[in-house]
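SECTION: protein entry
WANTED: fold as tokens:
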Amino acid sequence: MVPTLLGLLFLVAALFLAFRGDAMSMLEMVLVSSLFGGSAALLLPALGGASVPPLQVLIGIAIIRLVLLSNRRVGALRSSVSANILFALFCVYGVICAFLAPRYFAGAIEVVPLRGSYVERTLFDTTPLVFTSQNITVSTYLISDLFAAMIGFLAVLSQDGPFRFARVAIFVTWAHIFFGVTASLLKGTPYDLFIDFLRNANYSQVDQSIEGFSRINGIFPEPSSYTAYGFAWLVLMFEFWLRDILPRRTGPAAVAMTFVLIATTSSTAYVSIAAYLIIVIARLVLFPQALEARKAFVGVVAALVIITGTAMALFWLPNVSAKLGTMFWGLTIGKQQSESGIQRAFWAHIGLEAFKVSRAVGIGPGSFRSSSLATAMLGSVGIVGTALFLAHLVRALRPLKMSTYYGASYSSVYGEATLVGAAAAWGAVGALIPLVFISASCDPSAVFAIFTGVALSLRSAGRTARYKSLESYRIPSIH
């Protein structure tokens, strides 16, 4: 286990906050570290030089701080475990499957390794199922996700927790935008040295361009992973804005993130935005009274401005229009016929085949590469693990509760903390949407886990009354 220079910087900051900060400081630290998706805090030579991201290291420090060094009552920890029990069962079941299933079903199916040293000669090269180091790696991520959910639950128990969660979410959103835009605009300048320092993980770091446009990936390995991470924060910002949670900051952040994700030229961004729009429209059809008239007006005006501006730009720049048309076609409809699209369809099919071969048990997280969270989950943890995961999501989202859909005008009824929790639940949904189209494994991500932990904490029965209105924590100039 070899720490990197970046990892040492994170470690010093984490240890300082562990002894000088409060529980919410630990959550803020974890969320900020999640920005560094292409970074390594530790390198593991024993596992082929595998990289451990700063996020996982800081989650470990944070959970130790909250569990062992906290003066909280044991009841808070018990409540955290109880609220996240379904997710805990999912993670534990996944770890058990990861260690036992590849051995039990060894050789029963041909798979594409999640990561390995085999030589890929064609789009459909496979290897017999065996237990590998990736089973250990994904198991570690699942346990890390469980700890992340507990951290999210415990941290926002403080009276100013909801406001501070909203504030750090805004910071993370803008930081993600900043890294993406600056890394793209300043490509080929000395700024690349700074980005390379941050992108120090032993991943396949991809720098791409298409039709002359430099694709945006910031400090993430590739545009699709940059998009998947950013989309979760886009949804959270939009849901905050709908509920009047710091609207003058969350609204612009949502708009800016939307433009940046579109500029990534990632098909993941386009299908994710389309999927979320369908969800939002369905919500408005079912609960039209949930959207305030002024919010609807702002949304319509923004849509008209975007459409008009885009049309004018395409009219006055015909050469750019032609390139954009070719690019969008290749990244959407045309991608299904591309080699990449065919290969990803093959990877998704392996997950369904694993589900069938294992008789709905699963062949273990990390046993194969997929291209969709849905097929990865079915093939990895089978019907039991998938059911536990969906049950946890439903528990956090609470689809039968009106607070899930109603916005700012109902803050006096539900309490603003509850609305923050509802927004976090939708943020968790936003974290999953891109993964349905790109995830290589059944790991739902630590960001998803934190959002569900926050949602469960803020929406627990009888807990909302303990919080003050967020208004009492707002600075008037940033309402």
About this structure: The first helix runs from residue 5 to 20. The chain has one domain: 2-292+338-478. The CA atoms of residues 9 and 246 lie 31 Å apart.
